[in-house]
Amino acid sequence: MNAPRRGTYLNERFGALAFCPGCGHAQLVKAIDRALVKLQPDPSKVVIVTDIGCIGLSDRYFITSAFHGLHGRSITYACGIKLARPELRVIVLMGDGGCGIGATHLLNVARRNIAITLIIANNLNYGMTGGQHSVTTPFQGITSSCPEGNIETPIDLCATVAAAGGSWVYRGTVFDRALSDVIVGAIEHRGFSMLEVWELCTAYYAPRNKLDKKGLLSLLDRSGFKTGMIANAPRPEYSEQLRRIGRKKQTLLRNREQPIKEIYDNTVGKQIGIVLAGSAGQKIRSAATLFAQASMLAGLNATQKDDYPITVQTGHSVSEIILSPERIDYTAIDSPDYVVLISQDGFMATMDRFRRLTEHCTIFAHHGIELPQTNARCYSIAFAAASEPIGRNAIVIVALAVLLQISGLFPLEAFSDAIRRFSEKNAREINLHAVRIGKELAKKTKKE
Amino acid sequence: MGREFIDGNRAIARGALRAKCDFFASYPITPATTILQEMQASLPDNQGIAIQAEDEIAAIGFCIGASMAGRKVMTATSGPGMSLYSENIGLALMCETPLVIVDVQRQGPATGSATKGADSDILFSRWITSSGLPVIALCPATIEEAYELTYHAFNLAEKFRAPVIVLSNKEISMTRETVDLDRVKLQPVINRNRVLPDEAVFLPHAFTRPDEVPPFADFGGDRVTRHTTSTHDQAAYLTSHPRIIQEMIDHYFAKIDSAAEEIARVKTDFQQDAETLIISYGITSRSVAVAVREARSRGIKLSSLVLQTLWPTPEKAIRSAMTGVKKVVVPEMNMGQYRREIERLSPPEVKLVGVAKMNTQLLTPQEILEQGTVL
Ligand SMILES: Cc1ncc(C[n+]2csc(CCOP(=O)(O)OP(=O)(O)O)c2C)c(N)n1
Ligand code: SF4
Ligand SMILES: [Mg+2]
Question: Are the CB atoms for A144 and A132 separated by under 8 Å?
């Protein structure tokens, strides 16, 4: 059954209009109403989102769903609504004030091409707060915050939004005869549409600058800004694109994870801490993860924390691993049981720990790193030379294999197993080779 | 899934997905960034959307709009982004918009240390917006709890039509641990009450008793509905009527305050006749666990209360834990933020000792015992 045709989308509140006499906002609201009457949408399938300012009073006059949001942010809510329910018609009413404070949203919605309709009620100043200048106040225009005349150059909103990729951009005035048809066009556009409407603020900008209808039109003319259709270049809409990618991803969504069973034994009686220190690019973090996953295959609990400069491709890379047969509460390592140093960067980043090392600690340091005097046991090992056949990326795996072979924390086979299960495909063979190199190297290694 | 080795951010994303979150938007910031990646990798599963916004204001704005259109939404950030969320959190409170906000705290203020932990935003989360309306904030201590409390945050957000903040910390979100999330017990998923009365005019904020949670009409549903950031009546129309304004404010308070006991979640480890009680939350509670074992092994009697709900303050649990003890120690990874709440609730005869550190490092069990004068 068809719903009866609606003669208006305004409610009885519109009779007691809050706008000043002659305010352009009232004419704009009426034009939007006429456009809705032409389109005859179900009121519950239209959401009018208003910004702050006098224009923000207008949502209450419509019988549609509505949302009056924060200053400059109405575009963001409208995007959220549209993305959540693409079948809705979402219309934003924003003042020139909102275009300043929310300029980034204006550019980004245009760029993304989210299919909302943005109508800008440009009355060249902030009406609600008493007629201060906005980003669109003409040069030399008089406002309460620039009584000597505006010294700022106004933004050409339409040109700016068109340059940002706006797929439908139009500039008109509230006096345009066909304004409601233009609004229909904006709403029907399948993508982001922006309609900038010049109008009079009869309380502030118009009297201060002696503007009437004729004056406003001549001001627009003299501004050099284009009027009428400024851009109409349909292109793929954002949420359509999102859904396309989503469908693709869904078919790709693989089970990235697999549970880690307890397969091997271990000799770890209490919580121990291992500090693994090297340089960016040495795959410290991923090796630490493989080692921890291996320990889990051997029935242990593990934690891992990483420390590295924000500029990830340079400087140190340190991972702290804790292993324990029990649950691990405290995840910092105040006194490590093992320190594995594979580069000078790593040593520098962990140096201040060395004072505190006890005789319970064992250090495996790359040959050539000069360690301070400590109570710790120390192995100096030529990791790099031994790793030559497999390259720099696997030095850390060699070092961890040496640690495992000498410490006997859990079987080397658990490490190889974890590598087979969790290593990146292209690193798998090299890492397995690195474990074998580490095992041989350990046999040849003597304590210093 | 069984045993796995994952970090807190992955667990947070998993908790959200388990709660049927189907809309996520955020702006990248360490240590919260990987939640965006996790959500983007997984959300198509639920026909969901996960997007990167142009800034935090847009991120939370997208979420608010999507929630009003019926989605279950989440955003994630750290201290600097929380500042930018502030005004919209106020809007979500007054529009009664379900919304989960993850704050992975880092060392502040301002940019602070991007990759270092601190519980910087404990009080900030409570007083995050103008007006002082009550907020709900949960604080996980482990990766399992990050999963569980994120899931639970959705239930609270939906049930109370309110924003709910999950206060993680870099030390949880970016630390990997052995977990088995299958073993975490979860309550059934709660969705907002969408049973609307038949009346011709729908009231988006309908209540008779102030503590009632009004039913919610999604944008795009059968009924026309409204929301507004302006002071409004139950119909969501601007009002300047002082009586109605006060009724609405009372409603926002009553809705959360009256449910404080229901929202309160704590963990207790009390020892008979202990004269000292440690009250802690978040990552610090794990140092406390070690400290408690250490003290007891030395024959010192010691009790521990760990808060998983920080706001509204679990007053009853805190008060009852303090009865009979002589000393309360409050260790925090900040300069003593929650200590004020404990102070407010503690009987005059109880001695309060704060242990405060904010140098990006975890409080050590030793520091807690020594500076808390437990030993
Ligand atoms: C964050 C924020 N800053 C400032 C204000 C105060 N304010 C209210 S309306 C307004 C200007 C609105 O001007 P405009 O968008 O042009 O709308 P108009 O009143 O001209 O229709 C301002 C600055 C606010 N509401 N929120
Ligand atoms: S102040 Fe200006 S914009 Fe506001 S209602 Fe009056 S005329 Fe319209
Ligand atoms: Mg204006």
Answer: yes
